[in-house]
């Protein structure tokens, strides 16, 4: 049976075994029809597109499509949250009075004709040998690839909503994966006229430079080289030489060997399995979660893999810097490792089989399989880029990792401290004005320069410790005077070389200026490294150091994106956000202008490379290694990620001037980064990225759950509200005020206006914080003074007080922090209120008296 047909059948089977919530949802819609301005016919014909159980939220996420006379409305998916058999939250994308807006129920052109029309609109040749493979229903078919697509072509009759008029046009929805794998188009063709109505591209290209993008979801047949190993509980004995997380890339630390890194929960049979039986099926960089193969010729074929042999030992040296092809096996190993780590880590945060993750074999769990990631290393079809193509659940995504142009002069390991607690190798930038570092090492003691005014250690004035500098390597702060001035001052006192300490947290600079008369080398080191050296030296410590040219300063070699863990995490992140937003059966819910897909992807790269000792004011960038920068580089974005407004002043209004989609996304990442550090300040940092309980773990879980809860085609306010709702469901709103303060700081406050999510220019920022969430006010009471019952309730509530508090104010807030009920009662022992006017959902109830306060989660059925 053909692949796509197989996937559709599997999906139908999975849904059939899941509990049917259609009646629950229809009942909810009927009760709230007036609130949503829906006609009876708008809710009478709905279908469950997908559903999954969220372990973190303990709810069912159900995604529903609207239909008219059995024909679905394209991108009408609505998100419902069901707990204890009742709808507690709904994000509707239904069209009001759809029956009055449709133009027809019968197509004038056939499905075959629609494929030909689509090919013409896309500039493709006419399809040939186009055969009907299967009829799924009266309006849904599977055709052969027609020699225009890498995949068979599914065609279904839908209604396309027209933004300008709100009209619903009958259309054929079909998908074509171009033969050169550059795009995977989802196309709507007018079923009456054959006009092109709409296209989406399931390939997300990061377009770092140029316009290269490409994807291929074609199935790959593995050879089965079964290797007998011990049971999974003892590991499979695999080992990999990689730049292991939380390293950013080679500019952040050395490659190491990691042993048995697969997670027993997420990958119960290891990383080299396919059949679900103990023992690896492959000795190569392929398995249940990912196939990492090279694609140097850019043809998306079955390229070579790295082979670890019967012992699964993937120990391939990198020997950087050198031409990337010389470490191809190492690149494949790192790419395989990172994709598997992304799979295993995010599995613990709810990106599992039922939610649409990427696995060949789902090991009996719900969801569609056969969609492992095809990851192409050193792809030859482009440069300076990376991308990820994500079809709906059951279609295999493809990750393309490219080489990057030779960065020219880059940081190198020019400085080695030979003794003491600071011993080690340090990154530095060679200067552009002084003689280059010699190949023969310069070894001497370090000494800090001292002058007679201003900053005494910047060498900008008369040197007062000249006798101490003779025959030494002199450490000098960057200061305000020219680099050649301070270097010449040290040289005149007999210095052998100069180390300049940067005065900002970013990367060291390749210092420029007039080198006339300068005969000694000069390098610049990171601020944190240099300040540590200065402190130690001023405390009287003796430090011996060596300066030498390690060959990387004038690196002529291309950089390989396969070694940049942040870029790999970023690309994989596109698959996560596309599968979670609107449910796994969708792939087009992040096509609107205000969507935050690039933001979530940057966020994954940042949070998974956090380390103990990191600070909220660290300068973080994206793609620093690929660009030839050090760990403090800005990378590919216009601003550093940093919680300090002096470094990154993005607010909600910034999306109006930032580029789509990366600039818009970077504003969203900035907000999530602030939120993450606020949670770390509250709960601490936990280096156990899978099972930890720190603020970083809480933040990542909220972000993942928020994607499940938000509507299709979300904007910033939608994303904020979904995170608030996630905290309410999972943590009883424990972090509500912290979350509000984090978003309000960046202009996404209580009264921010989103406008249309199809526009980034019609929103209004706002910095208001809900009443009671001002700084200094705790989110929670540590002692329950009041008992609220019944809960869940129909709105008629009793409140029992442990002590006589007298007059009390009862306030109820919706999940967005808006007050929807307020009443003053006398609360001596108990009181009753009637909030039956509230719609079904989850709320927060605040009970405030003169000296007592409590916040309680409230569920209204």
UniProtKB/TrEMBL annotation:
GO terms for biological process: proteolysis. It comes from the Bacteria. Belongs to the peptidase M36 family. Pfam families: PA, Peptidase_M36, Por_Secre_tail. Its cofactor is Zn(2+). CDD domains: M36, PA_subtilisin_1. It is found in: Secreted. Keywords: Hydrolase, Metal-binding, Metalloprotease, Protease, Secreted, Signal, Zinc, Zymogen. GO terms for cellular component: extracellular space. Its main location: secreted. Residues 443-533 form the PA domain. This is T9SS type A sorting domain-containing protein. One of its GO terms (molecular function) is zinc ion binding. SUPFAM superfamilies: Metalloproteases ('zincins'), catalytic domain (SSF55486), PA domain (SSF52025). Residues 788-860 form the Secretion system C-terminal sorting domain.
């Amino acid at each position: 049976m053909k692949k796509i047909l197989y996937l559709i059948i599997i999906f139908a089977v999975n849904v059939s075994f899941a509990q049917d919530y259609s009646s629950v949802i229809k009942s909810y819609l009927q009760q709230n029809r007036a609130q949503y301005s829906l006609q009876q016919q708008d809710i009478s014909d709905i279908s469950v597109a997908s559903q999954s159980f969220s372990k973190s939220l303990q709810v069912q996420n159900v995604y529903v499509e609207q239909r008219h006379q059995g024909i679905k409305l394209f991108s009408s998916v609505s998100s419902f949250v069901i707990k204890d058999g009742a709808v507690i939250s709904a994000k509707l994308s239904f069209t009001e009075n759809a029956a009055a807006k449709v133009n027809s129920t019968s197509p004038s052109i056939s499905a075959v004709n629609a494929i030909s029309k689509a090919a013409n609109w896309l500039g493709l040749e006419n399809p040939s040998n186009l055969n009907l493979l299967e009829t799924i229903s009266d309006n849904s078919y599977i055709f052969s690839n027609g020699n225009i697509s890498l995949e068979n072509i599914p065609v279904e009759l839908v209604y396309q909503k027209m933004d300008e008029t709100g009209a619903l046009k009958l259309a054929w929805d079909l998908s074509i994966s171009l033969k050169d794998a550059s795009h995977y188009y989802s196309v709507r063709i007018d079923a009456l006229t054959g006009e092109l109505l709409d296209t989406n591209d399931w390939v997300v290209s990061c377009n770092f430079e140029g316009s290269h993008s490409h994807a291929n979801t074609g199935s790959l047949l593995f050879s089965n080289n079964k290797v007998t190993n011990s049971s999974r509980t003892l590991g499979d004995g695999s080992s990999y030489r990689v730049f292991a997380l939380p390293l950013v890339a080679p500019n952040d630390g050395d490659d190491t060997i990691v042993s048995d890194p697969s997670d027993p929960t997420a990958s119960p049979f290891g990383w080299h399995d396919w059949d679900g039986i103990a023992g690896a099926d492959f000795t190569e960089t392929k398995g249940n979660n990912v196939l990492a193969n090279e694609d140097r010729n850019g043809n998306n074929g079955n390229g070579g893999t790295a082979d670890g042999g019967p012992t699964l030992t993937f120990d391939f040296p990198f020997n950087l810097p050198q031409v990337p092809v010389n470490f191809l096996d190492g690149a494949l190993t790192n790419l395989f490792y990172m994709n598997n780590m992304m799979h295993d880590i995010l599995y613990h945060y709810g990106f599992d089989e039922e939610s649409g993750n990427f696995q060949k074999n789902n090991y009996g769990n719900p969801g569609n399989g056969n969609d492992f990631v095809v990851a192409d290393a050193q792809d030859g079809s482009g440069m300076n880029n990376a991308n990820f193509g994500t079809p709906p659940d059951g279609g295999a995504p493809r990750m393309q990792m490219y080489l990057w142009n030779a960065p020219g002069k880059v940081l190198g390991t020019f400085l080695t401290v030979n003794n003491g607690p600071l011993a080690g190798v340090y990154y530095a930038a060679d200067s552009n004005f002084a003689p280059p570092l010699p190949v023969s090492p310069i070894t001497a003691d370090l000494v800090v320069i001292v002058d007679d005014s201003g900053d005494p250690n910047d060498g900008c004035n008369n040197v007062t410790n000249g006798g101490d500098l003779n025959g030494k390597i002199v450490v000098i702060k960057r200061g305000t005077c020219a680099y050649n001035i301070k270097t010449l001052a040290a040289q005149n006192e007999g210095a052998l070389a100069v180390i300049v300490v940067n005065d900002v947290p970013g990367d060291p600079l390749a210092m420029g200026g007039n080198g006339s008369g300068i005969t000694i080398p000069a390098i610049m080191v990171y601020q944190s490294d240099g300040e540590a050296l200065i402190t130690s030296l001023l405390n009287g410590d003796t430090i011996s150091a060596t300066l030498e040219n390690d060959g990387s300063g004038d690196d002529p070699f291309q950089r390989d994106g396969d070694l940049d863990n942040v870029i790999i995490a970023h690309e994989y992140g596109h698959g996560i956000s596309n599968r979670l937003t609107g449910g796994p059966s969708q792939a087009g819910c992040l096509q609107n202008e205000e969507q935050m897909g690039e933001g979530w992807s940057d966020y994954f790269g940042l949070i998974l490379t956090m380390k103990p000792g990191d600070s909220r004011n660290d300068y973080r960038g994206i793609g620093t290694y690929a660009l030839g920068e050090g760990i403090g580089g800005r990378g590919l974005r216009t601003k550093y990620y940093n919680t300090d407004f002096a470094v990154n002043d993005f607010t909600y209004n910034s999306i109006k001037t930032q580029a789509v989609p990366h600039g818009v996304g970077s504003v969203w990442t900035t907000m999530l980064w602030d939120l993450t550090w606020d949670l770390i300040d509250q709960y601490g940092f936990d280096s156990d990225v899978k099972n930890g309980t720190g603020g970083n773990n809480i933040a990542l879980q909220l972000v993942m759950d928020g994607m499940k809860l938000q509507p299709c085609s979300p904007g910033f306010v939608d994303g904020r509200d979904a995170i608030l709702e996630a905290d309410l469901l999972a943590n009883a709103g424990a972090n509500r005020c912290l979350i509000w303060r984090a978003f309000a700081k960046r202009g996404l406050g209580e009264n921010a206006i989103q406008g249309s999510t199809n526009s980034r220019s019609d929103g209004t920022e706002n910095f208001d914080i809900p009443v009671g969430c001002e700084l200094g006010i705790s989110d929670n009471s540590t002692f329950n003074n009041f008992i609220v019952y019944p809960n869940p309730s129909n709105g008629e509530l009793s409140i029992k007080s442990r002590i006589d508090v007298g007059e009390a104010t009862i306030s109820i807030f919706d999940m967005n922090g808006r007050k929807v009920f307020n009443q003053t009662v006398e609360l001596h022992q108990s009181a009753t209120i009637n909030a039956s006017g509230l719609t079904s959902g989850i709320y927060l109830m605040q009970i405030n008296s003169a000296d007592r306060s409590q916040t309680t989660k409230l569920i209204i059925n």
